Amino acid sequence: MAERDQKSGGILESQLNEAAAALFGPTGKFASYFQSLNPLTFVEQSMDLYKNMFEIATGTSEIAPDKRDWRFQDKAWSSNPFYQRLSQAYLAMCEAVENMIPEDLASEDRARAELAAAIVTSTFAPTNTLWGNPAALNKTMESGGSNLARGFSAFVTDLIQNGGLPKQVDDSSFEVGRNLAVTPGEIVYRCEMFELIHYRPSTDTVYETPVLLMPPQIGRFYFTDLAPGRSFAEYTVSQGLQYFAISWRNPQAEHREWGLQDYVAAALEAVETVAKVTGQKKVNLVGFCAGGILSSMVAAYLAAKGSDLVNSFTLCVTMLNWRVDASLGAFRFPALLTVAKAQSAMKGVLPGSDLHKVFTWLRPNDLVWNYWVNNYLMGETPPAFDILAWNKDNTNLPAKLHEDFLELFDQNLLVQPGAYHALGEPVDLGAITCDNFVVGAVTDHLTPWKACYESRSYLGGVSTFALSNGGHVAALVNPPGNPKAHHWIGPATAATGDAWLEQSPKLPGSWWESWTKWCSERSGERIAAPEKLGSANFPPICAAPGEYVRQ
């Protein structure tokens, strides 16, 4: 055993060394970026920067911060000549850095360059320092420096307990089962990989065909069941739909061999169990984010087997084609993928905290420096917000599943009919011929809405597309009653997302309302709501949200 581990460790170390050379060596990926810089472009941008700096110094510059930029909201940025010039100089520098990215870069290389530029420019924002932040400076003088004392204490705590990143949320007031994930229900099935939640109907009658939610394998399921009034589960049952949800187990090192095939088998088991519990022949399948990828595989597998078990199919913020212009494309090149796979193989899992850091640095201004200023310079406690509390509640990714996802990501197998096999059956998304409902989010930085719109082009059946306000998670946690909520909806027949948007109406309110109406119309007759959850063969095990969500 020790000899095998030593050999395995040597192989992984060799892979890491090769990857490091491919990334950082003299002929590596990053060196090629510098070589691709056009000297003429560098000179032009330098001259533009000098010109901008001269105009800033003489007070003739018209550069101004975006009115929505949180960093420059203090009135000193417009009224104080020093701070006005400081903001203009910083913005001129940002523009110069961004303009130096070669126009002819491939989309993924450009995504990497833009991500690097965003990290660098956001790091050097003057607002990250005390003297460059008039709001923080004023607070220091008013409080006698107590804000900096609190900030330093928070910095030390985060350095020790939060991996050096500023804390994003005060989660002390949140508890799963007390004020999160409290929609009534029962665990009616448990296996090694998941628990199945059957939610209690809140109406006297329900539609015949049940709904099963397949959440992503990354993160806890309860972002779909936050506080009352903000719960997708609560709203769904209020509309008369029979609602079930999967709660994935948080894998540990001993589950390193759980791969995508295992998750497909588990998800298929969940679909079949829902049909058995309700006594129905079909199930409405809903996939959120990475759960949409898994749902697609299950639906394609059933189609290949000639089964019509999936009655309708819903994809929310899910990309099926990974060769699109998206921020995640910055991470697609062999050396980096080798590093990622080697690290998770050594640990047995990809820790949720590591994955959280990756997603955090995709938006450094909002998810790093915003909290840096709030926590350390202003000395404030981060907000108590349910979505952020959920986001902090990380889960791990088994090494084999991580490897399988990276293979899909790198080779883009799902959109190639038959290129990927699920449980021995070729995956052809076009064979999924039931009606489908696809959701995108306007400001989604992980799965851009136009990429989500493209997902519907790989599916058979009649497609409806909804475009929600909000970002990747906020669009999903989008309860009715929010006066700012809106969405566009219409048949997804246009060739492109832009063309679809031009012809689709904008409606006030949440996409939840449009989706439950769409799903209800495809769920058969209304029948008496079950008095007891589960069934004779699947009796309740314990109350929702169950045990796995707490592990």
Give an overview of the whole structure.
The chain is α/β, with parallel strands linked by helices and 551 residues long. It has a domain at 185-321 and 412-550: Rossmann fold. 43% of the residues lie in helices and 13% in strands. The protein contains 19 helices and 17 strands. The strands form 4 sheets. An 11-stranded mixed β-sheet has the order 15-14-13-12-7-6-4-5-2-1-17, sandwiched between helices. A two-stranded antiparallel sheet has the order 3-16. α3 runs antiparallel to α5 (81-99) and α12 (334-347) packs antiparallel against α16. The two termini are 29 Å apart.
Q: Main β-sheet: number of strands, strand sense, barrel status?
A: 11 strands, mixed
Q: Which class of secondary structure composition applies to the elements?
A: alpha/beta
Helix content percent band: 40-55%
CATH topology name of the domain at 185-321 and 412-550: Rossmann fold
Show unreliable segments.
1-13, 15-31
Number of strands: 17
- Report the radius of gyration as a whole number of Å: 25 Å
Gist of the model:
Helices cover 43% and strands 13% of the residues.
Itemize the secondary structure elements and their pairings.
Elements: H1 2-24, H2 29-36, H3 39-57, H4 76-79, H5 81-99, H6 107-123, H7 134-143, H8 146-161, E1 185-190, E2 194-199, E3 205-207, E4 211-214, H9 232-238, E5 243-248, H10 260-278, E6 283-288, H11 290-304, E7 310-316, H12 334-347, E8 349-350, H13 352-361, H14 364-377, H15 386-392, E9 397-398, H16 399-411, E10 421-422, E11 425-426, E12 436-441, H17 449-455, E13 463-468, E14 486-491, H18 497-503, E15 506-508, H19 511-520, E16 526-528, E17 542-543
Parallel strand pairs: 4-5, 4-6, 6-7, 7-12, 12-13
Antiparallel strand pairs: 1-2, 1-17, 2-5, 3-16, 8-9, 10-11, 13-14, 14-15
Helix pairs in contact: 1-12, 3-5, 5-6, 10-11, 12-16
